[in-house]
Amino acid sequence: MTTTTEAAAPTRAVGSAHARVEGRAKVTGAARYAGEISFADLAHGWLVLSSVARGRVRRVEDAPVLEMPGVLAVLHHGNAPRVDTDYVGMLGRPNPVLGLFQHDRVPFAGWPVALVVAETSEQAREAAEALVVRYDEEPHDVAFDAGRADAYTPRNNPMMPAETEKGDVEALLGDSAVVVDEEYTTPEEHHHPMEPHAATAHWDGGRLDVVDSNQGSTWVAGELAKLFSLDPARVRVRSEHVGGAFGSKGVGPHQVAAVMATTMLNRPVRVVLTRRQMFSLVGYRSPTAQRVRLGADADGRLRAFDHQALNLSSTVHEFIESSAVLGRVMYDADAHHTLHRLVRLDVPTPSWMRAPGEAPGSFALESALDELAEKCGIDPIALRVRNEPVTGPVSGLPFSSRNLLACFEEGARRFGWADRDPRPGVRREGRWRLGTGTAAATYPSGVGPSTAAVTAETDGTFTVRINAADIGTGARTAMVLVAAEVLKAAPDRIRVRIGDSDLGPAMIAGGSMGTRSWAWAVTLAAEELVKRLALGGGIPPEGITTRSDTAEAVGSLTKKERHSFGAQFAEVAVDVTTGEVRVRRLLGIFAAGTIVNPLTARSQFIGGMTWGLSMALHEEAVRDRASGVHVGADLAGYHFATHADVPLIEADWVDDPVPDDPVGMKGIGEIGVVGVAAAIANAVWHATGVRHRHLPIRPDRILIAS
Fold this sequence. Notes:
single chain; Aldehyde Oxidoreductase, domain 3; 3 domains; disordered N terminus
């Protein structure tokens, strides 16, 4: 029996293209998702949502519903179990949205007011639709606009200050040779993964067991334990396969409802959200109104930088769409100011949506940079080169690595930027006007503490255990490659277990921090195992296991500006007689540290860029001011890019070594979105000579502006 890993040393695993290890299970249907796993004696819950935008529940007329076939219970504020709504969760403050059925207050349309539980899903739905809820309705306010007098600056968060300031912006703006002062807006947008949110809760030997679809089982288990005042050891959350998340799959009303119902009925209860329910229960990207003011010398060097962003939040929970953070990293100036403000309305609470902050913020900032280049008569790439900072513009910290200019250089070469006529509106092809545009991209490369275990089995294989979440990104495969690299073993000798809170605490799949955090923990555990195996001796029947915990190492990480960077390029064709905009080419070049798996990484970039195209031309959720509810809250009424809208998208990367970094990896899940909408908007300007500062760039807006 070989007790070292030298005998099967393959070529490098990290950096090699590898098909998803769970790919066959997914395409054959063997992979089971949260709403598909069988349980004996399973009951089904169906949420009833408020039809008014503000008021109080006067009465839930549940008696007739309880007489309907198969109905087991109707939970509402009058009979639901009490929970601890004052607990401090992952965000460091209570989340009142999770206080399900704890009071009669209705803060927005779509607020859960009851849960009907029945023997079958069909019976639960029929009864839920028959349930009569009486309200005392109150006047509501859902109107978001830049001129709101009740906007306020939220309390500073040390991790993300609402405001940063250096120098006298007003004085230097007045003394600048060239000034851009414009407002940009982005609409409400929704993330709707293919797999709806689903949770099944049951009690198993005194432990609460929840099978869920989420972005971090450690996170969900911890929140549920605090909410229901349980010993954390008594809560287990499993999430083996997840059909997309994009920031939406954290802790929500469906999990809380399932736990309440299983506690009352003492049998497994499953709650699955409908597509329409997801529009109000799982978060969304807040609309934004952003003012960008840039003051520069005649040669385009920035003297004054001011980016102020406004977004909405609900009346029950505060959420900041951090759109102004981009400039804190991207561009330096003698005077520098960024500010976030909020207005609280009778609407659901926004939440993280792929590239939160950076996606809408990059549209405003990178459009404004293009406008500055136009006013200065400077090429847009040359302007960005001229304003490239040496250290963090606000923090003053060194960059761990910053290869943005290499991205622009490589992208410009591939895109043929040197042949671009800078004059707008001169390229024609029949009825089409053609234009090209570019924009910069960045996203933080953070890391969170994680634990991992690696076992050498007696059959010569290895088992990696880490509570990662594979939300469709290829996390399993990445961990296989990371372990194979350290163990010098072929990837097919590595098995990975993920998605189970019993595996120990680990970082969530969010903020582009998952792979970097998990890889660090797996690397340390695997390195320790290599040392153990090098001592020789046989492997006992239970195997040899080593463990890691990166909490101390993460805490001692040197303070630097750690970010991925990228350059986006777009070519569009615009028909000003019909208002049609067609994106003909998209190219993204990224600097994102070590790329673990080129196959899935390219897919991640292309997926993000597709989102950016959809953001630029299509996506816009509309709320009726009279009723406070969405107009067309489904995937028929909410317009997004489909196959016919998406051209051949190219995504690639440049070498981006990260000196003195323990793993050298950066996050890539979100940066693909950043800057795409601005690149397309800049290309539309180049094609037509008309600047569009409000998304999406709809046909009617093209026609009105022409």
